[in-house]
Amino acid sequence: MKVSIPQASDLLSGVVIAARLALHDRWSAQRLAAYQAGLFRQSVRHAARSSAFYREHFRGIDLTRPFRSADLPVTNKRMLMERFEQVVTDPRLRRRDLERHLASTTGDSMLFGSYRVVASGGTSGLRGIFVYDRAAWRVILANTIRWQRLIGIAPQVGRRMRICSIGADNPMHMTSRIPLSGDVGLFRLRHLQATDPLPQLIAALESFQPDALVPYPSVAALLGREQIAGRLRIAPRVVATHSELLTPEMARLIEQAWGTRPFNHYGMTEEPNIGSDCSLHAGIHLFEDTTMIEVVDEDDRPVPDGVMGARFLLTNLYNRVQPLIRYEVTDMLCKAPSACACGRPFALLETIGGRSEDMLRLPRADGRPGLVPVTPMVVGLAVEAFLGVREYAAEHDSTGIRIRLVVPDSGERHAIGTALPERLRHDIAAHGGVPPPLDIRFVDSLERSAQRMGKLNIVARTRPAGTPGEAAAAAPN
User: Fold this and answer.
1) Contact assessment for residue 378 and residue 413, using Cβ atoms and an 8 Å cutoff
2) Using CA atoms, how far apart are residues 183 and 165, in angstroms rounded to an integer?
3) Where are the extended beta strands (E) located within 7-91?
4) Predicted confidence band of residue 450 (pLDDT cuts 50, 70, 90)
5) Is residue 372 part of a domain?
6) pLDDT > 60? residue 452
């Protein structure tokens, strides 16, 4: 393993920053809110001074006086990608050059010796490119260290802890880049690709015998089933999932397989460490000293705690090169109305409900005009009620819902094929919608797309060729 001087320096700085962030665990909620508000104002004023895009975007708003977040307009991925060169604060950063750099990125290589460049999967047809200078990357590493300590991962004397992450297959993606960047020898790290065949994953895991397993939730559930069946034999003390929705059934399988309740990490390319749950598993602690999250309705108005939002607005409080100010993310979140009993001051996410563009919008069962929004979780919870389902994926549009199921036991397929449609029709009707046509198919395996970094779209909306109408997909982030 070859470690560069900048890589080691950045991780050392990350350790120092992580120690400073740990002090915030003992702050009051009021002190934390004031600290976050100060960072927000600094981020906004910096963006207005240094970014041509934000200078125009904030035109007419007096930023020399006190202002609220609601006084500022919203941004989104399409807006920031189409005007990339005007958004970034270093004129050397040209999107075409970043694309070329991404195509040849290996290990922890940096552009101009200063910038780490990563990309989102681009499944919506709109690829996102995000760039971090070394100062911002040190905060990312610090938050990663904070998360590791929160879930029980720490360097040990005499024996290096074995950590296996399972994610993207390329350092242009965050789930691969952070492990590469943080690998300076403190742990024994192994990164596996979520797109690898299951037998290959099993063989690698049994050879490595990880103390901590850090996969996508769908991969963890798949491996958990193999462990329960005796086809996988590992004994991780810590399991922590990331990058996908951790459903109740996935969590149950993981706990049954390894006797440990999984930790749930929430992050994305635009902000790798939004938050994580603690050992009490009462919800995801939002790292509000580095990120600001505004849960809002369809009209970008804040929703009360305890109410599911239509989306949220993200402000990155430390990236000065590519500012993200009130950046629209279509994940549906619900903040808990009370704090965690652990005593940390951070707000809690009690529910992550999927993405708003994946909502089913169905005719009203009462015959009145209009459509009823039905959360995609209705489909997921119905499928997961059948324990014989090893993996699944669902797509929906104006023609109906198509579900692919991996059910190894041929004897269970008939029962599930009969009972699942009845369950779905009942649950959709209970939400006031007219159940659409259902197409349920049994398959031997589900392909994990490299374009999506090996993730599964558990329930997603699609637009088939030639299909018009309300139920077609909106452009996701």
Assistant:
1) no
2) 12
3) none
4) low
5) yes
6) no
Residue with tokens 């039905």: 374
Number of folded domains in the chain?
A: 2
Structure token digits, residue 236: 């991780």
Q: Which two tokens stand for residue 77?
A: 């991925």
Identify the CATH number of the domain in which residue 291 sits: 3.40.50.12780
**Three-state SS at 63:** coil
What is the pLDDT averaged over residues 176-205? 88
- Whether residue 112 lies inside any domain: the answer is yes
Q: Which pLDDT does position 98 carry in this prediction?
A: 93
Mean pLDDT value across residues 375-384: 77
Its pTM stands at: 0.82
pLDDT tens, residue by residue, 109-120: 999 999 999 988
Percent of the chain with pLDDT over 90: 62
- Do residues 86 and 53 lie in contact, with contact meaning Cβ atoms separated by under 8 Å? yes
Q: Sign (positive/negative) of CA torsion 279, 266, 15, 156?
A: positive
Q: Single out the residue of 314, 358, 350 nearest to residue 333, CA to CA.
A: 350
Do both 249 and 283 map to the same domain?
Answer: yes
Q: Are 214 and 173 in contact (CB under 8 A)?
A: no
- Per-residue pLDDT, 44: 98
Residues 96 and 181 placed together within one structural domain of the fold: yes
Is 389 in the same domain as 349?
no
Task: Give 156's DSSP letter.
Answer: -
Contact status, residue 333 vs residue 350, Cβ threshold 8 Å: no
Which tokens go with 474? 């909106």
The whole domain housing 398 covers: 359-461
